[in-house]
Fold this sequence. Notes:
Belongs to the enoyl-CoA hydratase/isomerase family. By secondary structure, this protein is α+β, with helices and mostly antiparallel strands. The protein is 23% helix and 33% strand. It is built from 3 helices and 5 strands. It has helices spanning 22-31, 42-47, 58-73; strands at 15-17, 79-86, 96-108, 111-122, 127-136. It has a 5-stranded antiparallel sheet, covered by helices on one side. The protein is elongated. It starts with 14 loop residues before the first strand and ends with a strand. The mean pLDDT is 93.
Amino acid sequence: MSTPTVEVGTELPVYDVPSVSAEKMKTMAALLSDPTPIHWDVATLQALGMGDRPVNQGPLNMGYVMNAVTAWAGGPRSLRRLRVRFLGTVLAGQHLRVRGTVSGLREEEGVRLADCDVVLEVVEGDPVVSGTATVVLS
């Protein structure tokens, strides 16, 4: 990234997740010791009237936003802060997109920072995560 060209209003590159993986949800449920069957058990989903596609975990959705922001800013070490609000559910197989815009620039203790408004949305659907991120500009 060429930080001298970053200004308020700069749009982050769009970050696409072409298809949310049900298999990754199952793995994440095991890693998080999350016994909630809506993340991996289709029979439970059907019994609850929730269809037949597992529901993605919030930490995975937040991870897509983190990946988008840090890819733009130069890597994981650039992330200073991420605050998100979960607005909806993400289902296996959905196509997601992260978008972001620089909302502020500042300097703190000699470090140049960019504050960004971010959103994760289902393509041709609604936003499912919104929030703000702060990254170090190198």
